[in-house]
Write a structure and sequence with these properties.
Strand content: 15-25%
Number of helices: 9
Oligomer: single chain
Radius of gyration: 19 Å
Shape: globular
Strand order of the largest sheet: 6-5-4-3-2-1-7-8
Distance between the termini: 18 Å
Structural class: alpha/beta
Amino acid sequence: YRIYTTLGCNAKCPYCYQQGNAPISMSKKTADSICEFIVERMINGASLTIEWFGGEPLLNKEIIDYICNQLTPICERNKIKFSSRMVSNGFLIDAEVVKKAINVWKLSQIQITLDGLKETYEIVKGFDESDSFEHVINNIRMLLENNIHVSVRLNYNQKNYEEILKLIDFLSDNFGVYTNFNIYAKKIMKKNLDNSVRASEDSDLGILKRLLKNNLIKDVVNAIPRRDNTCIAHMLHAFMILPDGKIGKCSQAISDG
């Protein structure tokens, strides 16, 4: 289950596909209905995974607490393995969040996006705080030191491609020793302009070479971006749930209404 705790965000990324959406947040009443929906579909002895999404999911961390506190005892009674992961910009992480992530949310992994080194990153994200790059880098380190897997997604286009290669070097120097850390990159496509399969192949190859040079890839074959359809819309037991309770099967389609 991918649960959008809110459509609000503390960043201002110009490529965000949720631009124009009202920044609504999930209420406890809606969360109650979602928990009922999930419990009705539980299978004893199976597993339950929730991905917290947004907007920035940590803007509504209270609802994450609320849902986890409802589902955890039910999973324990029915011998269902419960875990969660998160897609976040990483800015709102602190010691309290890490403690809850471990003890309440059962968070196994978090994806954090970086768009370049300090100057580029801070222009793209537009946080209302100086030194936001250093702040997020320190938060990544805190997560890693608390045994939470961090997957850094590098967003690139032709303008920042060379800088992304330098960012890989920087991240390797800072986090290369952690076994619970990985990096992957995605090109930011412009709708109807450069979203062809070939649009990012040369750049993807250059990024893979830099990751390999920094010993950040252990399995080269599996690190190559797949070109087949990996959308979870084809998974029978996967759902996307918006803050107002609307349910869909595809994150792009559900955001488009």
